[in-house]
Amino acid sequence: MATLHISTDKTALDVLLIHQFLSERSTWAIGIPLPVMERAIDNSLCFGAYLEGKQVAFARVTTDCATFAYLADVFVVEHWRGQGICKVLLEAVLEHPDLQGLRRFMLATSDAHELYARYGFTPPSRPAALMERYLPNIYAN
User: What does the pLDDT look like over 23-80, one tens digit per residue?
Assistant: First the structure.
């Protein structure tokens, strides 16, 4: 495999690839409109993974860069899965200087618990303290 490059440069992101993946192939953001995705990117710390200049993976972190972060929209393009790209991407996210010393770093996953557990993520220690407003079909309207 060619050298994998991880970058937080938003100008390098392939926004159309990100939108296509999330809106058509993800399990969590089906139908997300492009302007919503663009706004999410604009207001987040984003990580692109690139092979030979082509984006092959993405992760987005919503954070105050002091106490809290939420990891979202993590994906590797199907063709490139199984080659350790997600692990390198997650390591870059967790090592980013703006994400050090946080009190809470959260994520939601339906099928990658084992992967995230390798990086210290666990079920909430106090699930009764967590609440959410969840609108799973918001993009269908």
Answer: 999 999 999 999 999 999 999 999 999 999 999 999 999 999 999 999 999 999 999 9
Six token digits for residue 136: 């799973």
Alpha-carbon separation of residue 55 from 13, 68, 85 (angstroms): 7, 27, 11
Q: What backbone phi and psi angles, to 5 degrees, belong to 124? A: -55, 135
Pairing of strands 68-76, 104-107: parallel
Q: Which residues, listed in sequence order, are joined to residue 55 by a DSSP beta bridge?
A: 50
DSSP 109: -
Q: What is the pLDDT of residue 20?
A: 98
Closest among 45, 71, 49 to 58, alpha carbons compared: 49
Q: Which CATH architecture has domain 4-136?
A: 3-Layer(aba) Sandwich (3.40)
Please say whether the beta carbons of 71 and 61 come within 8 A.
yes
Give start and end residues of each alpha helix (H) in the chain: 15-20, 34-42, 85-95, 113-117
DSSP character at residue 124? -
Alpha-carbon distance 110 to 120, whole Å? 17
Please state the pTM of the whole predicted model: 0.94
